[in-house]
Structure to design on (699 residues):
């Protein structure tokens, strides 16, 4: 009902747009300075970057796209990808709270596919490093199904992190940072020419960090290196080769603590009321998540003539992780997961995980005119092979501990069982077409065919036996009209598919991939010559072919389930002189396959970031930032646990002149103690106050 009312309101607004375009005449605004430029680059991206493979302006793209720039990441003090996304509409970042094993985010109520430099970046779990924000040029999000561009993927959309490379103009930078939990970090970004003609350039980006974390007996150390070389023999040809090496020595952080002592008092169960957010129920010297990644990426561009051009990206990646974890055991459920004396039992776990991927994506673009329309058609192919393996083992129970006053009792030896890995092979061919008329009317059409197979593997990319093999067609279509005053209403349709369930029903029929469908109606507004960008979108998103229990055959499943998300997203970026305002609001009405709310998804979420940077007067050189993030209450699954809403405040202040900048960032300014979600009898603490002082200098 909410979507129907909102859509009706939006349609009424769209119906009024032609009249508005007739009445409102805005003078052309000439922007003499790049008002969006910050110390680390542009403050806001008005273009889609690489996520749509076109680089079109966001204001001319009939889909919801968010791009977080390196400047925004630094200005808001984000220390990982999920924090960087927490000021964006439609995205829940960090829903599992303190968890150093991966970045977590939901887009429009569903998980999103993860890409890096436009290529798949994740298969399996806990077998790779997390992206280091300093190494990133941007974080791009395409919301909703995107199989037309990227093949098999999550219905929520795509999150793509892009690297800093020699292909981008950059200044030499050295950065020193100290902060909460004994955090010490040094980072550098240097580049230059390798020959006299300047056709060959290099860039080296690196981070070295030694840090503890909010959780007791934990660490977050990293060494990350990203050298690259770009060859640009002429203005039509560019080849970039990027190497990545990253080594993390960290801790899992996530504790799986009882609801009693986190969300609710442990009175009657434990030896206290509420646990501190630094609680550690693992074992010092045992809990660890050590990961290492090695990758080589090639990115090629060439323009043959005024019509034809070619883009191609390829990457080989090899990663591994040692994961050891002692967590709060899921027993004693009748007494809040506590023993009668208030102590708890623990589960000891060890995993030796591996990941290998090989991927290539290439497409040719033709730009031409036909029948009064400007045409752009790009057609491409992609091929991906991935292998992941997780060899695991569990240890014997070691003496119970009191989580309110832990006395650690040691850890057992664990024998890891060698198990068969999994290989995934996917190939696809796609075509996307845009017809535009007079720079006002835009019509987009897309079609993709994808083939994917999954099976057991002995360590090579190829599967030794096939567990699932599927082929799918997906489509997308959209139309947008941009009026002379910058107002641009649109409607779009998109699809996705993904191999979520491997197996058969009671009749031996193999499960089909899940499918996603989205209808989105929206409007975008960017006044001519400004970096103001206002967007509004309503959408109806459904994921079908979900497996649910077979009511007539216990122990089996049938593929009849569907999950839906209907919602409204509002985003606004505007500059009032020296003050910029970046605001976002999300309303989501969700339903899972069982008829309950989708877990961890709040109905309401909002954020606001204010940035004041005087360009003259006594305060020139100073920048003051303030932010607020609101996450509404959310169910933890099966409508059992309702996690309360929480509001967090962030602040930033910096002073810079010429080639140097000193900045102070504080996240969760009031040190709010909050729970991000409760599910299955466990609750998860969020980040407490975090302070970082950073000195950056260009040379």
């Amino acid at each position: 009902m909410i979507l129907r009312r909102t859509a009706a309101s939006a349609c009424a607004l769209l119906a009024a747009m032609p009249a508005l375009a007739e009445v409102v005449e805005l003078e052309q605004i000439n922007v003499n300075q790049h008002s969006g430029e910050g110390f680390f680059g542009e403050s806001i991206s008005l273009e889609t970057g690489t996520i749509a493979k076109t680089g079109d302006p966001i204001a001319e793209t009939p889909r919801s796209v968010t791009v977080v720039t390196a400047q925004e990441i630094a200005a808001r003090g984000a220390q990982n990808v999920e924090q960087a996304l927490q000021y964006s509409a439609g995205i829940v970042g960090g829903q599992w709270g303190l968890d150093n094993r991966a970045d977590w985010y939901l887009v429009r109520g569903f998980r999103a596919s993860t890409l890096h430099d436009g290529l798949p970046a994740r298969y399996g779990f806990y077998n790779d490093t997390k992206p280091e924000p300093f190494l990133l040029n941007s974080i791009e999000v395409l919301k909703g199904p995107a199989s037309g561009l990227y093949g098999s993927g999550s219905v929520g959309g795509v999150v793509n992190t892009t690297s800093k490379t020699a292909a981008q103009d950059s200044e030499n930078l050295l950065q020193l940072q100290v902060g909460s939990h004994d955090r010490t970090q040094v980072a550098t970004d240097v580049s230059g020419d390798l020959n006299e003609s300047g056709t060959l350039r290099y860039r080296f980006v690196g981070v070295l960090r030694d840090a503890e974390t909010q959780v007791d007996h934990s660490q977050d150390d990293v060494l990350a290196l990203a050298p690259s070389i770009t060859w640009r023999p002429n203005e039509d040809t560019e080849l970039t080769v990027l190497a990545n090496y990253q080594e993390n020595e960290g801790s899992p952080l996530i504790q799986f603590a009882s609801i009693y002592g986190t969300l609710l008092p442990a009175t009657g169960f434990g030896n206290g009321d509420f646990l501190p957010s630094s609680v550690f129920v693992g074992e010092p010297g045992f809990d660890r998540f050590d990961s290492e990644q090695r990758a080589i990426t090639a990115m090629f561009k060439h323009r043959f003539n005024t019509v034809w051009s070619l883009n191609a990206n390829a990457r080989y990646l090899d990663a591994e992780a040692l994961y050891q974890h002692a967590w709060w055991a899921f027993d004693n459920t009748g007494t809040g997961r506590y023993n009668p004396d208030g102590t708890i039992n623990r589960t000891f776990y060890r995993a030796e995980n591996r990941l290998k991927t090989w991927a290539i994506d290439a497409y040719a673009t033709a730009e031409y005119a036909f029948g009064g329309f400007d045409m752009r058609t790009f057609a491409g192919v992609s091929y991906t092979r991935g292998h992941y393996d997780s060899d695991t083992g569990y240890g014997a129970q070691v003496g119970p501990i009191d989580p309110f006053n832990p006395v650690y009792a040691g850890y057992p030896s664990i024998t890891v069982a060698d198990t068969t890995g999994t290989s995934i092979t996917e190939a696809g061919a796609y075509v996307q077409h845009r017809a535009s008329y007079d720079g006002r009317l835009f019509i987009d059409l897309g079609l993709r065919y994808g083939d994917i197979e999954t099976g057991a593997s002995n360590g090579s990319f190829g599967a030794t036996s096939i567990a699932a093999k599927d082929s799918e067609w997906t489509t997308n279509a959209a139309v947008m009209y941009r009026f002379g005053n910058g107002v641009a209403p649109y409607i779009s349709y998109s699809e996705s598919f993904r191999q979520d369930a491997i197996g058969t029903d009671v009749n031996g029929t193999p499960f089909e991939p899940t499918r996603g469908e989205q209808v989105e109606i929206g409007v975008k507004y960017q006044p001519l010559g400004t970096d103001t960008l206002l967007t509004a979108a309503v959408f109806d998103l459904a994921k079908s072919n979900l497996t649910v229990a077979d009511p007539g055959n216990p122990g089996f499943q049938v593929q009849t389930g569907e999950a839906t998300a209907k919602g409204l997203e509002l985003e606004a970026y505007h500059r009032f002189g020296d003050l910029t305002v970046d605001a976002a609001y999300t309303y989501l009405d969700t339903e899972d396959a069982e008829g309950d709310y989708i877990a961890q998804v709040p109905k309401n979420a909002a954020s606001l970031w204010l940035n004041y940077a005087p360009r003259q007067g006594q305060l020139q050189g100073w920048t003051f930032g303030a932010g607020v993030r609101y996450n509404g209450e959310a169910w933890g699954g099966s409508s059992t646990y309702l996690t309360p809403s929480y509001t967090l405040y962030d602040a930033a202040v910096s002073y810079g002149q010429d080639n140097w900048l000193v900045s102070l960032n504080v996240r969760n300014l009031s040190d709010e103690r909050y729970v991000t979600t409760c599910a299955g009898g466990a609750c998860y603490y969020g980040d407490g106050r975090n302070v970082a002082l950073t000195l950056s200098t260009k040379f």
About this structure: Residues 2-23 form the longest helix (22 residues). Residues 137 and 168 are 9 Å apart (CA to CA). Confidence is low (pLDDT under 50) at residues 1-34. The longest strand covers residues 346-370.
